[in-house]
Specification:
alpha+beta; 4 domains; ten-stranded mixed beta sheet
């Protein structure tokens, strides 16, 4: 190597002399020379960074576009109003409207009846707004219907409805045709009189006269909200507080920013979790850059030492190595931004902005280039590559030229990596952060703990590799091991630093794969177990799979319960209850619950309050885990909730697990709800059949009822299968990210073993010189790759299992406000482990075949 390095230095000096800036010429020569010598390794590192940036940027663009479009569509419903009054429990008496219209400080009041109307044959509801056209034109002009020129008064007609373009396309109707909607179990037929003045792309919306809407859908004397426009000079905040104090338990007074907060709170945890998962690939790519740069620095250690002898300063050498890593990051980040934009456009076009979460349905978003986000992800990609190059750059700058010029000094370059204290500090700090509460409702400290555990575990690998392989070597002493095993154990025990570089990529990718796989599997099995617990009936009947206008009345409930073969019918009524205008509404579920033994009906967690502990003037309710996190409810607490137009006292008798509603849910007995609210309609029925009854015959009898054509039937197995299908679709992005982590891990294994094998050409030549055959060297490489990968996967499994505990018991409850049980996906993890193990051995063999193909004398000539 000495002669080669001298020639290199001379050639460098000659070239530098011909230029005005010799340092810049030298830097360019070193960079291009390294990339020409090992282009595949550089391309792999660039691809890893690009893939991480692309996924992160694509998810951010998709979420941003969908959220912005969803918020804009919601704002269009409010128009130019200053304040909105909504009923705490949906609808309220329209007698409040004239009081507000004549109130001092109010310039204009516009009444609105907003209904999610059931559409026969569809899985989604149609949002129908009943408006007073003469008043709405001054507050929400975009929502005014556009009638045909020959029928200008259709906006006031009792049989006319106006549809947005997206609604017309969805329902396959045109102006002049008839649209069938549901009211209870009856069909309401309306004439499509035209479109709207303006509607957002993809916004499914219908508008009709408010009086006609109240009559057609059985909401006489009821409103959903009142839009207020205040007079100039009126202090909106003071006016809002005064209004809220006047009707504290009946109305919620909100402003446009409350709607923004509600939309943000509804999907924030989902969006942030997707972004964090997308950055997993980028985080894994950082260790691939580290291994690429570390191996490059080790291989060129004597060259850098010679340059130092010739006058290159430490700072210049430090900048050179950082420049190489930074360029890898910059190129990867630029490529990732382009790919991310492309991925986002394709996803929005073919899949929509939903991404499986269900938060942004009914909007048609289009990708828009986001410069601030692009700059952030570019900085992340290039910065994380610089971070991965920092340790190799510091080592190259600190190395003493005299020692570095000597052959065999490579392992000393990695001696600092074996220091365990920084790694132990990261692990300790990560453990402490797991005890921290959420920050602004987000598991920020949980994510930081995961990152610190990963960094600490990977940094600790040199010491773990040294201990493990030294123990294996001592264990093999005195036993009859072959030459191959002896050579492999001797090398791995004496060069743990180089071994740890190979382990870094395996450890980071496999640990994240393990953590995500355990988290998703635990969630999926927990949901399945939860479904088995709550689906205790034999047959489930719904009067409508969508909307809020397809309920069954008492007479229809009686007919349903008396069908031959039905032993018992339990009915359910769901409504919305707004407790905080800045949060999504809470689900109020009324069903048959035995207060003495609620476990038969509800998936309770923890202790329950006995019936004797509930005050005589209070009624029992059971709240979901989200109510505990979001509203501070606890067992035995007395709360006041509004039903209809009156407040009532309730006592929290138990806490139950709810995977369907992360915004919170409250259950109470159906008899209590009907007595207090006067609402006797239901939407669902759980039928327990007689012992000898045939479900098919019972379903046929139910279909024969006068309203049987409007009913939908499901058995527990069908509901579970559909729920798990929706679950898998919701976590499709997570599955994709797991595949990406596997691919990056395989890239890392391939690049690392290839580089190490090629760098050991002299070692293999010497072994060949003393009689070791090519086949034995290849066997040695395969065994080395297998042992290194096995150790990396073992430690990666332990680290990933620890991270999964944080995801399952800290991040998930703090994000979505529900808990789950831990379940291990042994089969899937075993298959991934075998794939990585096979890949490592195959890569080592492929790289070794090139190294051992070099002539023996050529390989060792530099040691003569």
């Amino acid at each position: 190597m000495t002669s080669t390095s001298t020639d290199t230095g001379t050639d460098t000096g000659t070239r530098a002399a011909k230029t005005g800036n010799p340092i810049r010429t030298l830097a360019r020569w070193l960079l291009l020379g390294e990339w020409r010598a090992h282009p595949v390794r550089a391309l792999v590192a660039i691809a890893a960074i690009a893939l991480g940036v692309a996924l992160g940027y694509a998810v951010d663009l998709i979420n941003g576009a969908a959220f912005n479009e969803f918020s804009a569509a919601a704002r269009s419903l409010s128009g130019q109003s200053d304040l909105q009054l909504r009923g705490v429990q949906g609808l309220f008496d329209d007698a409040l409207y004239p009081q507000l219209a004549n109130r001092a400080g109010v310039a204009l009041a516009s009444p609105v009846l907003e209904l999610n109307v059931t559409v026969p044959g569809q899985t989604s509801a149609l949002k129908v707004l009943g408006i007073d056209t003469l008043r709405a034109v001054r507050i929400t002009p975009d929502l005014i219907g556009v009638p045909a020129p020959e029928r200008p008064f259709d906006t006031l007609a009792d049989d006319a409805i106006f549809l947005s373009p997206a609604a017309q396309q969805w329902l396959q109707v045109q102006p002049g045709q008839t649209l069938a909607l549901r009211n209870g179990t009856a069909i309401v037929k309306l004439r499509v009189a035209g479109g709207l003045v303006r509607a957002r792309a993809g916004q499914r919306l219908a508008v009709m006269d408010i009086g006609a809407a109240q009559w057609r859908f059985g909401r006489i004397g009821q409103l959903s909200r009142i839009d207020l426009k205040l007079q100039p000079g009126v202090n909106r905040d003071q006016f809002r507080r005064a209004l809220q104090a006047e009707w504290p338990m009946r109305l919620q007074v909100s402003a446009s920013q409350d709607q923004e907060s509600r939309n943000d709170n509804m999907s924030r945890a989902y969006r942030i979790n997707l972004n964090v998962l997308a950055l997993v690939a980028l985080f894994t790519g950082a260790f691939l850059v580290f291994s690429t740069q570390a191996l490059s620095v080790i291989r060129r250690r004597s060259q850098f030492a010679l340059l130092r002898v010739l006058g290159l300063r430490r700072s210049q050498l430090l900048r050179q190595v950082l420049l190489e890593g930074g360029l890898l990051g910059c190129l990867g980040a630029l490529l990732g931004l382009a790919l991310g934009y492309l991925f986002a456009g394709l996803a929005l076009h073919f899949l929509g902005g939903d991404l499986g979460g269900g938060y942004f349905r009914g909007v048609q978003a289009s990708v828009q280039f986001d410069l601030p986000a692009a700059l952030i992800f570019f900085a992340l990609g290039s910065g994380i590559a610089l971070l991965g190059s920092l340790a190799p750059a510091l080592e190259a700058a600190r190395a003493q030229p005299a020692a570095a010029l000597k052959s065999g000094s490579e392992e000393t370059a990695l001696a600092r990596l074996a220091t365990p204290w920084p790694a132990l500090g990261c692990l300790l700090l990560g453990a402490l952060l797991t005890q921290m509460p959420p920050l602004s409702g987000l598991p920020v400290f949980g994510y930081m703990a995961v990152a610190l555990l990963l960094i600490g575990g990977i940094t600790l690998m040199p010491r773990l590799a040294s201990l493990a392989f030294s123990a294996l070597q001592r264990f093999s002493l005195g036993r009859r091991n072959g030459v191959i095993t002896t050579l492999v154990l001797a090398r791995l025990a004496n060069v743990p630093g180089q071994a740890s570089i190979a382990l870094g990529g395996v450890l980071s990718s496999f640990s994240l794969i393990v953590a995500m796989a355990i988290m998703v599997t635990s969630f999926r099995i927990s949901v399945d177990d939860w479904m088995q617990q709550i689906l205790s009936a034999d047959l489930y009947v719904r009067s409508a799979s969508n909307g809020e206008t397809g309920a069954m009345r008492p007479a229809e409930q009686h007919l349903l319960a008396t069908v031959p073969g039905v032993a018992r019918a339990d009915f359910l009524r769901t409504s919305a209850l707004t407790l905080d205008p800045a949060r999504p509404p809470v689900a109020l579920i009324a069903r048959a619950v035995d207060a003495a033994d609620p476990v038969r009906t509800l998936p309770l967690i923890g202790p329950q309050l006995p019936s004797s502990a509930i005050a005589a003037d209070s009624l029992p309710i059971w709240v979901s885990e989200a109510m505990v996190d979001l509203y501070g409810y606890h067992l035995g607490q007395q709360v006041t909730l509004p039903l209809a137009t009156h407040p009532y006292r309730f006592t929290v008798a138990g806490i139950w697990r709810d995977y369907a509603r992360q915004s919170g849910a409250i259950q109470l007995r159906l008899a209590d709800y009907q007595r207090l609210s006067g609402d006797t309609e239901v939407t669902d029925a759980a039928l327990s059949l007689q012992r000898d009854a045939d479900p098919g015959a019972v379903i046929a009898a139910l279909r024969a009822l006068p309203f049987g054509a409007t009913l939908e039937f499901s058995q527990p197995g069908e509901i579970r299968a559909l729920t798990l299908t929706i679950f898998d679709r919701s976590f499709a992005v997570t599955y994709l990210l797991e595949i990406v982590a596997i691919v990056i891990g395989l890239f890392g294994v391939a690049a690392t073993f290839s580089a190490q094998t090629l760098a050991r050409a002299r070692e293999f030549g010497m072994l060949r010189h003393v009689g070791v055959t090519r086949r034995q060297i290849l066997s040695m490489l395969a065994l080395e790759g297998g042992l290194l990968t096995a150790l990396g996967m073992l430690v990666g499994f332990l680290l990933g299992w620890t991270i999964s505990l944080i995801l399952v018991f800290i991040v998930n409850p703090q994000s979505f406000h529900w808990t789950m049980e831990l379940h291990m996906p042994w089969l899937g993890l075993t298959l991934v482990a075998l794939l990585l193990l096979f890949s490592a051995g195959a890569t080592a063999l492929l790289a070794g075949s090139r190294a051992v193909s070099v002539d023996v004398l050529h390989s060792v000539r530099e040691d003569w």
